[in-house]
Amino acid sequence: MEAWEKSLKNCITSPEELSGLFRLQGGAFSPVVARYPMRITPYYLGLIEEPGDPIWRQCVPDPAELCDPSQSPDPLDEERLSPVPGLIHRYPDRVVWIVSSACAVYCRFCMRKRGVGCASMVPAKVDDAIAYIAGDPRIRDVVLSGGDPLLLPDDRLAAILSALSRIPHVEMVRIGTRVPVTLPERVTSALARLLKRHHPVYLNTHFNHPREITPQSAKACARLADAGVQLGNQTVLLKGVNDDPQTMLSLMRRLLAIRVRPYYIHQMDLVQGTAHFRTRVAHGISVMQALRGHTSGLAVPHYVIDLPGGKGKVDVLSGRPGSGGRTLLFTNYLGEEIEYPETD
Q1: Annotation says 269 is catalytic
Q2: Measured between alpha carbons, how far is 97 from 124 in angstroms, rounded to an integer?
Q3: CA–CA gap between residue 150 and residue 125 (Å, rounded)
Q4: 260 — phi, psi (to 5°)?
Q5: Which of 113, 306, 311, 340 is catalytic?
Q6: What does DSSP say about strands 230-236 and 141-145: parallel, antiparallel, or unpaired?
Q7: What are 27-51's pLDDT values in tens digits?
Q8: What is the pLDDT of residues 152-161, one digit of tens each?
Q9: What pLDDT is stored for residue 132 in this prediction?
Q10: Phi and psi for 262 in degrees, rounded to 5?
């Protein structure tokens, strides 16, 4: 058993374990964990300095997760857009392949918290996914997602990448993973060599706070970069975590220092159980304004909204006021006009 697999076996998964470590009453966490599972790696747990800090908020259950009944568990309509279970085909030339249902840490703001870590989330079968991708010559870009693709053993990941490499019209593979942030020991030399054999491979990781950039996570990113993997980062704008302009500025600068290019800042999706993390779009714009001109353009990502109903991503700055000033209007890639609610 490798070191990263031992770490997964030692994760905190119950309210009792958590309350024992922090001398808290575990009863408040139990109903939340019963609905949305908890898993925290020993490494990520060690980044918490005190209850309620930015690391804590990202990984520790909160009763507020059960106080958001009005939103959809699947606002991006991924299940409707799955021609094969576990394979999402929203845009003509790319698909998202759910290859894993587990993550090293179950983030409390997860866009797929309806299924990640639950028996209801089933990854796409390899043969079915490959047959679908091979049968549609429009598909040139395959995004491996989950859960976390890098929780797969090397041999299973290699089999997926090899199968994709045999499809002539697939030009690139992207991997979405939070492993460098939450389980950096998973990024082994063997994994780096595996990815190097299947270029072009692009990897988007998910740092949300400067304190997540540690010697261990920096080493993991360096190992990937040295193997020729193109690294990007997708940050979610989270209330109480990174919605302070100086925090975001520090994060973007430090990402470049470890050879990770800031790619997106996401407005928090309208996912059931995550309302306590959402900021107003107007506040997000003010955070972006604090980046521009105060740091290199390389450190200024795109601020985007993933529109409900599977309507695609749009640049926030392209929005315009909607009805009564309580909504924003966006035109998506299909030319459709979509109304988006502004958080109260």
Answers
A1: yes
A2: 7
A3: 17
A4: -115, 120
A5: 306
A6: unpaired
A7: 778 999 999 999 999 999 999 999 9
A8: 999 999 999 9
A9: 98
A10: -60, 125
